[in-house]
Specification:
By secondary structure, the chain is an alpha/beta fold. The chain has a single domain, classed as Hypothetical Protein Aq_1857, Chain: A, CATH 2.60.300.12. Helices cover about 15% and strands about 50% of the residues. Strands 4-5-2-3-9 form a five-stranded mixed beta sheet. A four-stranded mixed beta sheet has the order 1-6-7-8. This is Core domain-containing protein.
């Protein structure tokens, strides 16, 4: 998967960077009758089955199931002051209003 960070996203991440941690792009099925994918970005460690992606001197990881949910080989991570992070494919905006956080926090 090709991941691109906009300049705004890179600047925001570097302003809150946690040394020794990497960013996980996560997508999980949530809901009952109407299943949706909920996306998140959090500080984490890599797992053996993760795809590791180096972008602008930052390390990101993404698991195979999240790649399936994204359903695109290209993903852009953007940041807007009023909206937070956005995950965008060439076909659609997957999520916005995302905040980079600690996994368990």
């Amino acid at each position: 998967m090709q991941v691109t960070l906009t300049q705004e996203a890179t600047e925001r991440i570097k302003s809150v960077e946690q040394p020794g941690k990497i960013i996980r792009i996560n997508g999980e099925l949530v809901g009952g009758c109407g299943m949706n994918v909920e996306y998140a970005l959090w500080w984490d460690d890599a797992s053996p089955d993760d795809q590791v992606i180096e972008v602008d001197s930052l390390t990101l990881v993404i698991d195979p199931q999240t790649i399936e949910h994204i359903d695109s080989d290209k993903l852009t991570i953007d940041f807007r002051q009023q909206q937070g992070f956005r995950l965008v494919t060439p076909a659609q905006i997957l999520a916005y209003g995302i905040h980079l956080k600690d996994r368990w926090g």
